[in-house]
Amino acid sequence: MKPIEIRPGVYWVGVNDRVTERFEGLWPISEEGISYNAYLILDEKKAIVDLSKEMLSDDFLAQLSELFDIAELDYVIINHMEPDHTGALTHLLKLAPNVTILGMPKAVQMLSDFYGITENVERLSNGQELSLGKNTLRFVYTPFVHWPETMMTYMVEEGILFPCDGFGGYGTLDGAIFDDTCSDIEYFESEALRYFTNIVAPFSKSVLSAISKFEDTPIEIVAPSHGLIWREDPGRIIELYSRWSGYYKKPAEVGITALFGTMYRNTEHAMNAVLEGIASQGVPVYVYDVRKIHTSYILPALWTQSGVLVAAPTYEGGMFPDMMNVLMMADRKRVGNKKAAYIGSYAWSGGAQKDFESMAEKMEWDVINSIGFIGGSGEMDLDRARELGVQLAQAVISDSGA
């Protein structure tokens, strides 16, 4: 793609990544891809806000070269030091050796730690402003969105917020970079949720703190470093991130995420009876086979639905391994404040139920009921399973105040 002007003298100069299979080495994006959005401001002083991943440096520098002589660049603004936003920096410095790099104190230290860069670097303070000529940049410290050095840059005259990973999402920008020009806004919103739960959710309190710092600031455009640029309805992505972040401390949506793993379908049959009980109460349920579906695609439902059903057998005296992996990641991502239940089969001695209850306690889930049964599920087991579904659904409804 060619550079795109988003406001007079302000250009998107990002690149699409359709090569990386797992973002951060963890999260699948082989089908969705991701964009690394960077922004060039051409004023009396020339500045670039954020960069790109090192492997796409050639594409990134080609974008810049279409607009100006890179040697004339005055400033590089480092909102966030993660290498998908700074990897191209060493290549850029070869073409603009006199550029000044700006970042918060922790970012300055990381420049040295990551790249050995110590010259032409200036430390910023929270709220500090920089005049480029007609335009002014304000730097707002927003630590742990999602690293300790992160800040957001606000362009005062144009009302543009450059939040880097804040308000970002997965998905390449295939010709359309704005919310009002893309053909499937729901897709980008769902990929923003997946990105949020995969990357940002553990720092929800910090996200809410960052949002509060801009409550009285007129924002005309939200220009993150991944995903769509929001210009028609910039408040939409802020509202979504605010809502999602709020779930870390208050009940989420009325719904249940059903996670299951099974070896010989005994647990699956019992889970189906639980689902009947849930359905009888009119509560939505979202079912995920943990053997087949990557945790990246499970986390959005786990985060946004207020109930969790774990259906998994005992394996070698403990929780079915694929299920344990999901629960451990849920704990790492701080998926809390849930109504939860367990059901699972075992052959001669249990263990999965104990592991579930231990993980649930660690995550501060409110366990409504847990059922383990030997071998195949008989009629009594299935009746108990249906009742478990009713109990879990009613707890979810009650928790919502509906």
Description:
The protein has helices spanning about 55-65, 85, 90-95, 105-115, 185-200, 205-210, 235-245, 265-280, 295-305, 320-330, 350-360, 380-400; strands at about 5, 10, 15, 20-25, 25-30, 35, 40, 45-50, 75, 100-105, 120-125, 130, 135-140, 150-155, 160, 220, 255-260, 285-290, 305-310, 315, 320, 340-345, 365-375. The protein is α/β, with parallel strands linked by helices and about 400 residues long. It folds into 2 domains: about 5-245, 4-Layer Sandwich (Metallo-beta-lactamase, Chain A); about 255-395, Flavodoxin domain (Rossmann fold), CATH 3.40.50. Helix 11 (about 350-360) links the parallel strand 22 and strand 23. Helix 10 (about 320-330) runs parallel beside helix 11 (about 350-360). The chain is elongated. About 50% of the residues are buried.
Features:
402 residues, alpha/beta, Metallo-beta-lactamase, Chain A, Rossmann fold, elongated
- The name of the CATH topology of the largest domain is Metallo-beta-lactamase, Chain A
Unreliable sequence segments: none
Instruction: Give the amount of beta strand, in percent.
Output: 15-25%
- Per CATH, the superfamily of the largest domain is Ribonuclease Z/Hydroxyacylglutathione hydrolase-like
CATH class of the largest domain: Alpha Beta
What does the largest sheet look like?
7 strands, mixed
- Mean pLDDT comes to 97
The percent of residues in helical segments reads 25-40%
Q: Which strand order spans the largest sheet, edge to edge or round the barrel? A: 1-2-7-8-9-10-11
Count of strand segments: 23
**CATH architecture group name of the largest domain:** 4-Layer Sandwich
Provide the gyration radius in Å: 24 Å
Shape estimate: elongated
Structural class: alpha/beta
By DSSP (H or I, 4+ residues per run), the number of helices equals: 12
Task: State the separation between the terminal residues, measured CA to CA.
Answer: 48 Å
Count the domains: 2
